[in-house]
Design a protein that fits this description.
80% helix
């Protein structure tokens, strides 16, 4: 898999998540069986803004050549997605979220595996 492909997939996913959290945060957290209080919705809107910004970053970086900056984007994406998946599973086990969070965790895990594959493939490219 190429970085361009992962950047586009991530950009589209982040765009959808950003719009979802910003406009429909109560629906998203409701899927996780978390009560959509005013505080939770406030955080959802702010997370939506963050996701929209990250969507733009990945969209603009999709054609970037192999570089330290591109590697940093990929490594950062791995850390973000693995931490999101891990905390989602933890919150489910701790009883703070319902089974709906497993869908999010699975998607995050797949994204992390995609970026790991890209990073490993780029290590084989001679400088």
């Amino acid at each position: 898999m190429k970085f361009k492909t992962m950047a586009i997939i991530s950009g589209v996913a982040l765009l959808a998540l950003g719009l979802g959290y910003f406009f429909f945060g109560a629906v998203i957290v409701g899927r996780w069986q978390v009560e959509p209080t005013e505080s939770v919705i406030l955080l959802a809107r702010r997370i939506g803004c963050l996701y929209l910004g990250l969507a733009l970053v990945f969209f603009l970086a999709r054609r970037a050549p192999v570089s330290t900056a591109r590697t940093a984007l990929g490594a950062g994406a791995v850390v973000i997605t693995l931490l999101l998946a891990g905390t989602g599973i933890y919150e489910l086990i701790a009883g703070h979220a319902g089974n709906g969070i497993l869908i999010s965790a699975a998607i995050e895990l797949l994204l992390s595996l995609g970026f790991i594959r890209v990073l490993l493939a780029e290590k084989k490219i001679p400088a």
